[in-house]
Amino acid sequence: MREAYLDNSATTPVCRQAADKVMEMMLENYGNPSSLHTKGIEAQRELDRARSVLAGALKCRADELTFTSGATEANNLALLGGAYARRRRGNRVVISAVAHSSVMAAAAQLEKEGFEVVRIGTDAYGRIDPAEFAAAITPKTILTSMELVNNETGAIQPVSCMARAVKKVNAPALIHVDAVQAFGKIVVSPQKLGAHLLSVSAHKIRGPKGVGALYVQHGTHLLPRLYGGEQERKLRPGTEALPLIAGFGAAVQALLALSEGTAHATALRTLLLEKLGTMAGITINSPDDGLPYILNFSVPGIRSETMLHHLAQHGVYVSSGSACARGHKSHVLEAMKLDNDRIDSAIRVSFGHQNTEEDVLQLANALQTGLDTLTRRRER
After folding, report:
1. 258-276 and 357-379 are packed helices; what angle lies between their axes, rounded to 10 degrees?
2. Model-level pTM?
3. Which of 216, 320, 325, 328 could make an SS bond with 304 (beta carbons 3.0 to 4.6 A apart)?
């Protein structure tokens, strides 16, 4: 059976360049970058090369990047490390109510420890109001966090409003941007966004799983979450996962030009919207001006899990929301104040560079079959 993988926001298939690089590092350039002999020096060069490649893509200094095990660790290091470093200057933390679960969980932990956490809601399409976010910033705010692109709806958030709001009240806040779903798809520049901290991940851009990075602006102080080594400027001690890091660098180098990727995703999204428009009852949850790589819609009357199983039987792979939620009700769609039927029947389609019009048509045909058969079964 032909497969149509349309769950690229959960993870992407690894590109050949990244896979080859990982294999090379495991079998040939296997030294420890901290070792002083030739194999160690060769490994250190690869580590430096990957860091420089990523820095070039983000238009930042190479020494401002700390490699982590992924975006979850990067987000935790940003929120916990940032809040702890500034707790003497205030205790208010302002985040998006539709942030990734790793940000939400880190903020909840801070709340348990006595920090005041304010969660800013959204409109019906998952978009944050800059004025509402700015109004929550006070002189006691020590940390703000917002995702550049929402992982469930594709809504592009006004992250630059954080820097303006912090400056307006002269708050001592660190500004964190979760750029995981944006990197490789739109321009991501920590400097232009006014970010002190910014998270990215390899496996969202056709790199290996298990590696990400946190941008930490030069001069910004964080308290580490791990101890016991000199690696990564002591922010993330321990022997570097060099095969994965080198694979990350290779995936960055293999990225399509942003304009080419956007045009490709837009064409696929337009085709899917056209097909969905012919199906009774389908409701679109993503904003018109969202990232074209992500489209969230609901099939009222058919639970997401039921439709996902049906689609999988037809070789089509999508999701009901964030992969980290593992079937739990979406906090993003709840924050958008959608009714329970729309939340329980939501489907997220996310495109990758490898997807084709044939994938979209296969999805549309399987959806229509599901609407015809599953609805009849429910009505019996």
Report:
1. 30
2. 0.94
3. 320
Are the C-beta atoms of residues 274 and 282 closer than 8 Å to each other?
no
Element (H, E) at 347: strand 346-350
From 15, 60, 161, 324, the catalytic residue? 324
Look up tokens 């912090």; give the residue: 166
Query: How many residues are recorded in the chain?
Result: 380
Query: 2 in helix, strand or coil?
Result: coil
How many CB atoms within 10 Å of residue 130? 17
CA dihedral sign of residues 170, 74, 290, 321: negative
Query: Cα–Cα distance between 197 and 195 in angstroms, integer?
Result: 5
3-state secondary structure of 352: coil
Q: Which two tokens stand for residue 264?
A: 């490709």
Task: Note if 324 is an active site residue.
Answer: yes
Residue 295: both structure tokens together: 């489209």
**CA–CA separation, 330 and 340 (whole Å):** 10
Please report how the helices 357-379 and 304-313 are oriented relative to each other, as an axis angle in degrees rounded to 10.
120
> Distances from the Cα of 329 to the Cαs of 2, 8, 17, 260, 304, in angstroms?
30, 20, 37, 34, 10
Tell me which residue has tokens 């896979």: 19
What CA–CA distance (Å, rounded) separates 228 from 143? Answer: 27
